[in-house]
Amino acid sequence: MISQADKERIAAAIRAAEENTSGEIFCVIARHASDYRLVPLAWAAAIALALPVPLIYLTLWPASVIYLVQLAVFIAAALALSLPAIRFHIVPRRTQHERAHVQAMQQFFAHGLHRTENRTGVLIYAAVAERYAEIVADAGIDSKVTPQVWAAAIAALIEAIKQGRAGDGFVAAIEQCGRVLAEHFPPGALKRDELPNRLVEI
Predict the structure, then answer these.
(1) Entry pTM
(2) How much of the chain, in percent, has pLDDT values that exceed 90?
């Protein structure tokens, strides 16, 4: 998803942003937040359950034939809807965003962003399949910076992902986050780099 050159650009952008703030920035990009394996089965079951009604009224087929047709339709629909190109389009947008938010929170804690000394960890997270981005800030930042402040950085990241330029999107989001953090959280006298300056792919 991200070339080595883009990873190096992102790492450099994080280092540059953190020069002017005590905040810690960490980036994660996910191919998708979930496989949504049960969604195609649910759609296939709904189609198969609706199928017998017209067959009963419009044909003279015996119940055994209708059952076999119903089973065949279920299998065919489940296989077709399970194709990635289709599967991600039949998942409700709200469900996609909920799953992506859950994964963002999991990544925030998994990478220890909640354990920085002054609670100034910031996660920039993106899920490509869902075209979803989120910035998760720890308590020290969240108490002073409202979520709306991150809107421009999130919008820039999502737009770049849509255009296949995830690397540019992360750099733009990091730069915008860096400006916000520098305003509210200037570097301390004993500035330490508590988190690795890199992007993680999952």
Answers:
(1) 0.83
(2) 64
